[in-house]
Amino acid sequence: MPLAGSYRPALTGVEEIGTVAPDERIGVTLILRRRAELPAELVTGPETISQEELADSYGADLADVELVTGALSVAGIEVTAVDAGSRRVCAVGPYSALNEVFGADLATVRGATTPVFRARSGELRLPVALDGVVTAVLGLDTRPQARAYFRRHKQPAASTSYDPPMLGTVYGFPANTDGTGHTVGVIELGGGFAEADLQAYFSGLKIATPTVNAVGVDGAKNVAGQDPNGADGEVLLDVEVIGALAPKAVQNVYFGPNTDQGFVDAISTAVHAKPTPTAVSISWGQSEDQWTAQGRTAMDQAFADAAALGVTVTVAAGDNGSPDGQSDGKQHVDFPASSPHVLACGGTTLHAATTGVISSETVWNDGSNGGATGGGISDTFPIPSWQSNAGVPNRSGGGTGRGVPDVAGDADPQTGYNIRVDGKPMVIGGTSAVAPLWAALACRLSQAVGKPLGLMQTALYRSAAKGKGAAGFHDITSGNNGAYKAGPGWDACTGLGTPQGAALVEVFKT
Fold first, then answer.
1. Taking the alpha carbons of 351, 501, 240, 264 in that order, is the dihedral positive or negative?
2. Angle at 382 between CA 279 and CA 336, to 5 degrees
3. Which residue among 89, 115, 141, 150 sits deepest, i.e. has the most Cβ atoms within 10 Å of its Cβ?
4. In 189-331, beta strands by DSSP E
5. Which one, of 123, 144, 116, lies nearest residue 19 by Cα?
6. 422 is catalytic
């Protein structure tokens, strides 16, 4: 039977350099259906459940697990791990067996700027017995799935830049909070950090070096010092922003391969970790149309698990304006920022005094060469109930959809963050910086109100209305990201605006 949502169009702009050997061993992740659908009150909060309750009531049915593992074993495919709570079965086997079961005709290809990877086109298939039981098969195609959304300032020094604690002052992070007792999961698809960098950076800020643990997923690991202008910049930006703004929070950094399988497995591992994290920060993504439907759905369901567990997931909205870097002349939003189960984070250009008073804050848009905040209307996800009164416009082609972003923060490299990467001081911006900023804020807000926040939007949008600013936000009303302009209230550039942390404490207390 065809596997719904597995279709991939043929790749263009790559060179086919060979076939995959029949005996090459390939690891895959299968996502299984839920034993029951998550009720709305769990996904939108404020009710939450434990990991055990989630697994028992909404994880994979053990009969389905046995059916899948049995079918794989008979086909000569070794099951290496089973997690009924996150509904994942991980397996490895020779390409010949995987091709027989899933109908994956793979080729080895090379792109102009990418390493060699496996690629497929068309649909996958499933044995009839597994039809409807398995909802996604990930890992056969290993094309790079996501981009990191950080922007390094190109000059030796930016005219304006901020140490992250200064932004905590500017955005009014709650007093007498520091993230104590909270955990943040950080998702990375490359790069690494060195302890020496962290010690030097936080010593310079006169902050005790936070606890940062590296966790490998699907064979990936923390590899530091390889490229200060590449993925290392993303990793250090995330870790240093969170550590500076929530210094007592424990950070678990999940390193996965940059594939759809690696991305989904890293997120599922982080969300279902013990102790349950307060927040998960993600600064990687790709235009919605560059994903398979099965990949989007698998990840979105992991985010739904997060909401049910009380985990806030913060995601960068992208650095390529309203087209999201696509060249088809249309507007696109970035995924996973477009998932209705995450807090999508857009970007601003910020000018503030040393006292923390904002003199101006506008939409980040440095033009085609400098980047601009992502934002727009999803072509995939419908408008969520909590966003229905916010004045989200229809798509340019008609119809409603989930509006991106929800919130914003400083992202312009011209007014960027002072960061240390591989021994070098740098100024870095991009919406990559905003996701960890909001993850740190989620920890401190949660600490202040004494409860997990989960899907924050339920509370954040409560006072939102078309053309009206929401409580707890500095409304950004000037600038554009291409097709969309900022204005009073929610807009597709900066969402509800940038945080006023002390006021947000009151929002979450009610």
1. negative
2. 35
3. 150
4. 212-216, 250-255, 279-282, 284-287, 312-316
5. 116
6. no
Question: Choosing from 64, 218, 234, 265, which is the catalytic residue?
Answer: 234
The answer to whether 151 and 347 have CB atoms below 8 angstroms apart is no
Of all residues in the chain, what percent are helix, strand and coil, respectively (each to 5)?
25, 25, 45
66 catalytic per annotation: no
- Mean pLDDT, all residues of the chain: 95
Percent with pLDDT over 90 in the chain = 89
pLDDT surpasses 90 at 510: no
Specify the amino acid at residue 411.
A
Cβ-contact 161, 418 below 8 angstroms = yes
Alpha carbon 134 to chain centroid distance? 24
**pLDDT of res. 172:** 97
Distance CA 381, CA 333 (A): 11
Residue 19, Ramachandran bin (φ over 0: left; ψ between -120 and 50: alpha; else beta)? beta
CA dist 407 and 394 (Å) reads 19
Report if pTM > 0.90: yes
Does residue 158 carry a pLDDT above 80?
no
Q: Which of 238, 265, 334, 410 is catalytic?
A: 238
pLDDT of residue 367: 84
Three-point CA angle 383, 384, 389, nearest 5°: 85
Would residue 197 show up in a list of annotated catalytic residues for this protein? no
Percent of the chain with pLDDT strictly greater than 70: 99
- The tens digit of pLDDT for each residue in 60-69 reads 999 999 999 9
Catalytic residue among 432, 446, 475, 491: 432
